[in-house]
């Protein structure tokens, strides 16, 4: 199945090659930078959480990729590139060793170490934490992670260890050639152990959060805005162009488009379908369509009428879904 999502980019954003992606900006040689390096992004909705281990939706991912950085990240073309890990190695696709940057730091100046990653993955896998991304972590095939999440094995048996402060090793149960790419997911990002211990369930609030990405959390007004400022401790800060990123949640595509049209928003991630042809024709420099790799599923309640009592209704539903799938695949 193919699904497309539209991104609208203002001239300001295009000029600065803004770091709204998950890698540092590469400014074209002849580019003229805006005097104020501030980006305002329309987000699809209010974020449900800023805890990487529990984030599930795109609104959360947009913000978290600015705040936190995993072992690897992605460039603007979706290629896996070094993040906190400057390199990695494996001989059998079952044991992966990551070599961390010595200059990677948290926003409070503490060094980012392999122990941070061990703590964070164990926290996410802990059944008492009940991460919303437990299903994803099971797919990594890290040794014993499924049994741990299911409460059948101890956290100490998890196949991850810090060989030293800057060397991290994962042991998998099966060969997973794409494991390195999987470490870019938010559930495998590091969190600051001391900040969580001090602030407990309030650690994601402004003033409490300690992050290791290109930006830090400055302000968060629920259903109004999230403001991030440049993280001066970030290892690649010299190549960060923006000084501030503001996320504004929009439940309505039309509202987001109107704010973009008036210049209040520099970029938004979706537009009303009916407006797409007009935008493509009248604003080709600002309208871009990119593919989004994703999976959709629908769960039907078979415990209530008519699906519970009418076999015919269930058969019709199955046939309709089959016809829809064939239509999509033939496109």
From TrEMBL:
UniProtKB keywords: Signal, Transport
Solute-binding protein family domain sequence ranges: 80-307
Gene3D superfamilies for the chain: Dipeptide-binding Protein, Domain 1, Dipeptide-binding Protein, Domain 3, Periplasmic binding protein-like II
Signal peptide limits: 1-24
InterPro entries membership: SBP_5, SBP_5_CS, SBP_5_dom
Keyword Signal: yes
Subcellular location: Cell envelope
Pfam family of the protein (one): SBP_bac_5
Family affiliation: Belongs to the bacterial solute-binding protein 5 family.
Protein name according to UniProt: Oligopeptide ABC transporter
Protein source organism: Vibrio maritimus
Lineage start: Bacteria, Pseudomonadati, Pseudomonadota, Gammaproteobacteria, Vibrionales
